[in-house]
Amino acid sequence: MGQPIPDYTVDLFSHESVRNARAVDDTLREFSPVVRLPDGTVLITRHADVTAGLADWQTFSSKSRPWHDPNSLRPEILLTDDPPRHTHVRQVISKALSNQVLGNLRQSFERDVAALFDDLMSRPGNVIDAVHDITQRFVYKALPDAIGVRVEGREHMYAFGHMVWATMGPENELFREAMVDIDPVLAWIEKCCDRDNLAAGGIGMVLYGMADEGVVTQAEAKLLLQTVLSAGADTTIMTMANAMYAFAKFPDQYQKLRQDPGLVRAAFDESLRWDSPSRMAGRITTREVDIGGYTVPANQRVGLMFAAANRDPRAWENPQRYDMSRDLKKQVGWGYGVHACVGRVLAQMEAHVLLTELARRVARIEIAAEPTPWMTTIGHGPAKLPLYLRAN
Q: What is the pLDDT of residues 282-311, one digit of tens each?
């Protein structure tokens, strides 16, 4: 029998903690490999234990998680299943995001990025908000285009993503702030993912085509499409923005990328490690398990702390430094095991197109002001990131 899990009384999801989430999560990791919050939730903080938990879906099940409400507005599919159901649904998403489907979209992504940088580089000396002016602007066009969304209302994408991320944390003040005026947003997401409102040849119609074949139901196809639209936006937006922030803070790494564009995937993955866009993944234990000498009981809702694990000095030397030469196969920002991010191929393609063009067109990136954090509990990244983009 292991030791009792130590209590941790700091509110990790207050406004103040979210503003300082990086330091808060790192402090938590160094306090203990496992902690219990006042509401009973258990958090696992260190890289080796988080990786082991992600790999062992039989012990750390996705069928429930901290603060999980099955009636929430979040699409309840894929993320809340284990094999064999999860395996089946994942194969459906993988087919919709296949190289064949995405390969047809690459040229349109490249055109969008070229037009974006034509506009940005015509504003020499101006402060650019890397989130609003670059990553959101690109993803909020590229992702709905890839899905085949034809209806107006893409301005609702931010609010929809904010609401979905809010459902992953406790129902605190930040949750309530995200749930203001939700009816128009929910009406839009229902309408834009209806089969009749989708263009041919996009990810959406591939999913509905598999429903026609009986692989999934029509309702499941719609849920999967809503999942892609919500999960495929914010994490990519945050990670690409964090990469640009890192390029400004570590200019030697940016110059390496400019000299060798083949490093663009490493640049994106190191951004995912250096400042993960998700603080944690939720699970529920199916049996008693030992974590660092502490006993986590069966039927315990737990959080596997991505961000803290990705900066664990037990796993990386000088983890606070952004360094593209690291062994990035072991970073957990994509998740790990059977629940590893199924949309990573789409995110990597978006990042490859945007960051390659950035390195080609921008000689130096400088910080104009410190970033304003995105105020949500589990998601993490800048809401605003003022930068100067220098052409020479």
A: 999 999 999 999 999 999 999 999 999 999
Side by side, the strands of the sheet bearing 301-304 are 34-36, 42-44, 301-304, 281-285, 60-61
Burial 123-162 (b: 16+ CB within 10 A, else e): eeeeebbbbbbbbbbbbbbbbbbbbbbeeebeebbbbbbb
Domains of the chain and any CATH numbers: 15-390 (1.10.630.10)
* Ranges of H-type helices in the chain: 15-19, 21-31, 47-55, 85-96, 99-103, 106-120, 136-147, 157-166, 173-178, 183-192, 203-212, 218-231, 234-249, 251-259, 264-274, 306-310, 344-361
CA distances to 78, 166, 178, 279 from 169, in Å: 18, 6, 11, 10
- pTM for this entry: 0.94
Separation CA 180–CA 325 (nearest Å): 43
Distance in angstroms (rounded) separating the CA atoms of residues 142 and 109: 6
